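Known limitations

Structure tokens in this collection are predictions and should be treated as such. Users comparing against experimental data should check residue numbering before alignment. To illustrate the layout, the record for tRNA-dihydrouridine(20/20a) synthase is reproduced below. The input appears on top and the generated tokens appear beneath it.
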Amino acid sequence: MNTHIQMTAARVEASFWRFSVAPMMDWTDRHCRVIHRLMSRHALLYTEMVTAQAVIRGDRQRLIGFDAMEHPVALQLGGNDPALLAEAAKIGADFGYDEINLNCGCPSDRVQGGAFGACLMREPALVGDCVAAMKAAVSIPVTVKCRIGVDDQDPESALDALTAAVRAAGVDALIVHARKAWLQGLSPKENREIPPLDYERAYRLKAANPDLPIAINGGIKAPSEWPAHLEKLDGVMIGREAYQNPEILLQADPLLFGQEAPVTDAFAMLEALEPYIAAHLERGGRVHAFTRHLVGLFPGRPGARAFRRHLAERCVGAEATLDDLRAAIAHVSRHEAAAAA
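Generated tokens:
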């Protein structure tokens, strides 16, 4: 367990959720989060969803271990059993997480088979029981990430019912993915794109619940969009854009927190990343654990295509080294140096 000092729920203000990077399966692992943290001191980072049973019975260090430099960082849990979720939440809090989040938005077949994720939009009372159990088990914030509804639900009544249930249970914040989930007929990828976004529904929810911190997620890309959402809500959560164009995170601290970014550009971030990669290699890890999260760097810049090709061809195998990553970066840095000359 790390020695990070936890904030109790009573001390957490709505600004804690002002800007965050969404939990994304197969993407926001501990290595991805280190990369993101190097570009923003303030972004709240989320783990991939981990089921409560996996946390309780699995290899905890592998599943939910993280580096202290990732703070603030939240653990997202999946499940529908209040007792198991409470036990997993306690484990997460003991590991040093700053928040426990319950997934009520994932529409994948595997999650549906376990009757959790977006399925829970149909069972607000059960979600309330889950939140109450987790709140009783931990002193850190407990939050819920949800959709505005599923299938043929009316987004007005469905979201209101879920909100009422979790509010009564003491939830600390709600993160709303502002589109429905279709549990039959659409893939998880299609569920992130096809159901129409309805930001106004999230705005109405906040207006009706002014004292409940509410953040919005779904389809948010350009930093120019962030302030408009924050005029009506407490937080903005970005997902795929942060992963596919990670340099966007360099704008978060100056734009939303009035502070300079931790590093000046992607090159400085990569230099700061080297000690973490070196330590990972010393433990028997691979460079690819990090480089697979770097392919979105340098979009549209001279040398970017060669950079990506080098990562794919030279930084995947067990024999890849930091020098291979440096050689990939050089495809872009040489162009930058020539342009500055």
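For this record: The chain has a mean pLDDT of 93. The two ends are 49 Å apart (CA to CA). Please report discrepancies through the issue tracker.
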